[in-house]
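Severity: low
Component: inverse-folding endpoint
Summary: output formatting inconsistent between runs
Steps to reproduce: submit the following structure tokens with default settings.
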């Protein structure tokens, strides 16, 4: 994480605008800060304002507005090329940084009026790779739940509840760790989560989720030395504070390994893919309902799970015993 104290004033003004006016989440602000700091550091090299070549060692606090005004779309293209060629950034990563740069320069020209010409106005997004998401089969999902609920694990109530929510609700990691007990409506079997873009949505909890949460809460509620700023948190670490992303990743990675599943292939995010795929394949869920459940802004993002199903249809046809006659 790059400290805001090392940013030029115009970058911090943009971050403040993103928080207060655009209502961006803390995670989005971190990404904006990192992406734009990286961009400005590259521009320091690009305009020969430093002899340093390692981005980590470049100071952008004194990056001037005069230099900002010199940036053209060709300079931005040079940065995107650097991401692709030198840093081997994937199209999705480059697309995110391009989106950040576009929003940033729109702010500088239209809101702050710091510069007159927007060099990112016609900046295009790289074509995204079309990849079928990796996901666990129904059998492997059951294996993972068995591992998570194994009583040999001293945190089995917590870890089972975490894995159950991932596999049944399609939560993002950031959404799961942010759940507060008060977010759960036990009488209506639902909870609210804050997703991307700081948007709130309702998640309906099935019988498995309610049972897992209730059993974990019998353990959670007797903890008396919970850190003050974590008293509302549903999931706690062994240090009695809100569980971190890294801890959840470690828990899931350990479960995958014990279940005999490839930890290089699967992750917490793949559990989200698994939930979506299983719901689409076995639940006959409408694609719009799945979009709402997953918190996707665009239906195009959700449609990747219909492609998964189409791949199964193709496989079924190709494996027909008459196919090779």
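Observed output (run 2 of 3):
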């Amino acid at each position: 994480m790059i400290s805001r104290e090392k940013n030029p004033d115009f970058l911090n003004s943009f971050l403040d605008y993103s928080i207060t006016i655009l209502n961006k989440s803390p995670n989005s602000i971190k990404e904006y800060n990192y992406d734009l700091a990286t961009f400005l550091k590259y521009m320091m090299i690009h305009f020969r304002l430093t002899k340093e070549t390692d981005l980590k060692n470049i100071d952008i606090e004194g990056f001037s507005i005069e230099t900002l005004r010199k940036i053209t779309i060709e300079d931005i293209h040079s940065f995107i090329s650097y991401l692709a060629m030198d840093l081997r950034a994937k199209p999705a990563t480059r697309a995110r940084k391009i989106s950040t740069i576009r929003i940033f320069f729109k702010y500088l020209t239209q809101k702050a009026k710091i510069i007159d010409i927007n060099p990112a106005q016609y900046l295009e997004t790289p074509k995204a790779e079309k990849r079928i998401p990796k996901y666990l089969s129904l059998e492997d999902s059951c294996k993972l739940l068995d591992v998570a609920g194994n009583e040999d694990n001293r945190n089995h109530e917590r870890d089972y509840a975490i894995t159950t929510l991932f596999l049944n609700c399609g939560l993002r990691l950031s959404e799961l760790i942010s759940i507060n007990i008060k977010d759960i409506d036990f009488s209506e079997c639902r909870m609210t989560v804050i997703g991307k873009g700081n948007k709130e949505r309702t998640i309906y909890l099935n019988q498995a989720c309610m049972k897992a949460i209730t059993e974990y809460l019998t353990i959670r509620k007797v903890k008396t030395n919970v850190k003050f700023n974590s008293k509302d948190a549903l999931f706690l670490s062994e240090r009695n504070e809100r569980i971190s992303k890294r801890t959840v990743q470690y828990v899931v990675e350990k479960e995958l390994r014990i279940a005999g599943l490839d930890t290089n292939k699967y992750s917490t995010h793949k559990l989200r893919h698994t939930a979506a795929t299983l719901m689409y394949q076995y639940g006959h869920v409408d694609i719009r309902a799945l979009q709402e459940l997953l918190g996707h802004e665009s239906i195009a993002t959700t449609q990747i799970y219909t492609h998964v199903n189409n791949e199964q249809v193709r496989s079924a046809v190709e494996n027909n015993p008459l196919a090779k006659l």
